[in-house]
Design brief:
This protein is mainly α. It folds into two domains: 21-68, Arc Repressor Mutant, subunit A, CATH 1.10.10; 80-211. The protein contains ten helices and no strands. It has helices spanning 21-46, 49-56, 62-66, 70-81, 100-113, 120-130, 135-162, 170-173, 176-192, 200-211. The longest helix has 28 residues, at 135-162.
Length: 215
Amino acid sequence: MGPPPSGPAGTSPPRTRGPSPTKTARTRQAIIQAALAECLEHGFAGTAMAGVAARAGVAKGTPYRYFPTKEALFEGMVQEVIASAWTGLEPGERQPGESWRAFLRRAVLSGVQDFESSGRAMLARLVVAEGAQFPSLVEVYRRAAFRPLLEQIRRVAQAALEAGELRAPALARYPHLLVAPLWFGMLNNAIIDPERAVEIDALFLAQLDLLFAPE
């Protein structure tokens, strides 16, 4: 027989309760934000889980409970910062009577305007700078962010083409055209010519003008 239960006779030992879902979500968010700051300061190669834990204000082993590896942590950052930014881009989100051009402007422009401040540009530059050394970063970014966004744009572009709103079918074939202003602006402003920074949102709106027929 095993040892008698602790506590008063006939009662079971008190159960320990885990952290609430709200606290778990807050901790996960704090870890992701700390990881973003660490990667911005040190790059992916120079970021350590211990540094993420210290910046997040949690115990050294806590990040591993949420993200077992640095690559898993990077995927968490991508899903939190990038993938969640374009949830309103599905064609079914278009409002009655709204043109496809107006829909894209409404659904995408806010994400373009905070491209830098949100951390999305930093993560994209991280992939460019360290992807050759860490191919898993490229794979995560491609799978979790890049290809899903292109597929969303392709569906919208195909609908716009069928509605006669596009100047030419190029966007339906090359959805990359809509994100090209973001990538050019990101690289130009941080690396190529920061002294002559361009307004990424203005580039995006200009691209809409080039792709869509006048309303």
